[in-house]
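This section describes the prediction task in plain terms. A model, or a person checking by hand, is given the sequence of a single protein chain and must write out its three-dimensional structure as a string of tokens. No templates, partner chains or ligands are provided. The sample shown here is typical of the held-out split.
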Amino acid sequence: MEEKIGLNYENSDLEISYSLSKGVGESIVFIHGLGCSKDFFKDVWKLPEYEKYTILAFDLLGFGNSSKPKDFSYTMEEHAELCKLAIEKLQIERIHLVGHSMGGAIGLLLIEKIRAKVISFTNLEGNLVGEDCTLSREAIRYSMEDFEKMAFQALKSEVRRTKALLSSTTASKKLYYKWLSKTTPYSFYKSAESLVNWSDSGKLLRMFIDLDISKHYVFGELNKNSAAVGMLATVPKTQIPGSGHFMMVDNPQEFYQVLFRILSVELT
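The expected answer:
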């Protein structure tokens, strides 16, 4: 199911790894989080109720099986630009955009670039405020040199043995460790640096609240008291029981039922 497309950006030839299934209805585009990959959404292809949708999930540049150049900025803005180019090249239209964690921040910037294509935005604990930064803020406590030399390995070890992920299952921690281990320290650090800056700015929260398209915020039960949840009084929200930050892995059955209901409402 995995394929690759070539993109030329700023005179660099890049490869984006993606999975795509074509349906007869609207499209769902998934954007993953920091250190993750499209693999975090793999269960969507097992569910018959989603067969009518065109579904696209891809690995952001620097993550998963996509290219990992060291001459790319890895800012949220440039991640969004690469997402735009991939969506255009794959000719994806009528998009329900779903962004998880860092992917939520990228998604908000992407909507500004492809506004005419986007029907709705579902934010899966996507970064909105400074308090949303956990591993990203931990990473930038170090210099780039120290992070590459020692701190990235320490961070991976921490993820493997602690509750740092605010997740309720071993499965999501193992999956995160697997893909984090395929991430380069440089792409992780530079993405984290930009993500923290955007989250601290307050702009992401305002952009999400002010979106003039249908929007929904989905969060894991373990994070029901987070700062972001408390700030979204005017935004529809849904809690996924028995889950933490990686709700699509912690409780996939409930998560995909909730997402299907959200998207079904958008179609009425």
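For orientation: Residues 130 and 200 are 4 Å apart (CA to CA).
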